[in-house]
């Protein structure tokens, strides 16, 4: 029987989707691809997603999904009790929408344009500047998230997929040291989420954490 197939690269945004699927109890086959231009698996990724991004998900009926947040909504439809998105009528639902879109439409693009800046600005100095400005902008955005972060989860008592994004995206630039120094509330959420037993597989596969054995945010 065909199943869900998730194309991803270790440590990338697919970790969010893997975590959501783990909470939702959706089994999937994982296919590792490398999105870089010179990679032998890039053509395979482009076959499925012309944008060349991961995560890319192929549903059992062959439908292709891109965009991590779309996949979160899909998982929430399959398993509404997994608690990925506050249910209709819950006052936290619009709050979830706001910050989920903020993460994928404001924070995530700082990587899209900053990871490989020469793709967008060919000259050396311009590319360097684009990397610097997108890095600085990201820090501002995390500062905004820190200022309103709840406890124990981002939305307070209710755990949602926002916490999954936080657990994974805090593994990226500006890096653990910066997060620890500047966003302690965000780090507390990341730590708590990372250590959820249900996420052990996804966290270990993506970030080499022996989740059950220790605190990934310990020095
Ligand atoms: N909006 C997309 C962003 C996905 C994304 O940027 N993924 C990164 C890896 S973490 C990627 O594929 N980068 C390569 C590229 O953008 O060309 C989502 O939320 O899934």
Keywords:
9 helices; 219 residues; globular; 4-stranded mixed sheet; alpha+beta
- Compute the average pLDDT: 95
Strand content: 5-15%
Question: How many alpha or pi helices?
Answer: 9
Q: SS-based structural class?
A: alpha+beta
Can you tell me the residue ranges where pLDDT is under 50 for at least 5 consecutive residues? none
Q: Write out the distinct hetero groups bound to the structure.
A: glutathione
Strand order of the largest sheet: 2-1-3-4
What is the β-strand count? 4
Main β-sheet description: 4 strands, mixed
Estimate the helix proportion, in percent.
40-55%
Give the overall form.
globular
Multimerization status: single chain
Distance between the termini: 44 Å
Order of helices and strands: EHEHEEHHHHHHH
Backbone CA Rg:
17 Å
Could you provide a short overview of the structure?
The chain is 52% helix and 7% strand.
Describe the protein.
With 219 residues, the protein is of the alpha+beta class. 52% of the residues lie in helices and 7% in strands. It contains nine helices and four strands; from the N terminus they run E-H-E-H-E-E-H-H-H-H-H-H-H. Strands 2-1-3-4 form a four-stranded mixed β-sheet, with helices on one face. Strand 3 and strand 4 form a beta hairpin. Helix 1 packs parallel to helix 3 and helix 1 runs antiparallel to helix 6. The longest helix is centred in the middle third of the chain and has 25 residues. It is globular and about 50 Å long. Glutathione binds next to helix 3 and helix 4. The site of glutathione (GSH) has 14 residues, from helix 3 and helix 4.
């Amino acid at each position: 029987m065909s199943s869900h197939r998730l194309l991803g690269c270790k440590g990338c945004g697919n970790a969010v989707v893997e975590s959501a699927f783990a909470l939702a109890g959706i089994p999937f086959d994982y296919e590792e691809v490398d999105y870089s231009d010179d990679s032998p698996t890039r053509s395979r990724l482009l076959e499925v997603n012309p944008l060349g991004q991961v995560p890319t998900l192929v549903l059992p009926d062959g439908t292709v999904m891109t965009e991590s947040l779309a996949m979160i909504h899909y998982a929430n439809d399959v398993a509404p009790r997994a608690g990925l998105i506050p249910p209709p009528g819950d006052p936290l639902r619009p709050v979830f929408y706001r910050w989920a879109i903020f993460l994928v439409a404001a924070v995530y693009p700082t990587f899209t344009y900053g990871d490989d800046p020469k793709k967008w600005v060919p000259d050396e100095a311009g590319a360097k500047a684009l990397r610097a400005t997108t890095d600085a902008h990201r820090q501002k955005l995390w500062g905004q998230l820190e200022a309103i972060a709840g406890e124990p989860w981002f939305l307070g008592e209710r755990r949602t997929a926002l916490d999954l994004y936080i657990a994974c995206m805090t593994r990226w630039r500006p890096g653990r040291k910066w997060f620890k120094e500047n966003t302690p509330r965000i780090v507390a959420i990341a730590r708590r989420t990372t250590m959820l037993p249900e996420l052990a597989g996804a966290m270990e596969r993506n970030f080499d954490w022996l989740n059950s054995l220790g605190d990934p945010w310990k020095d």
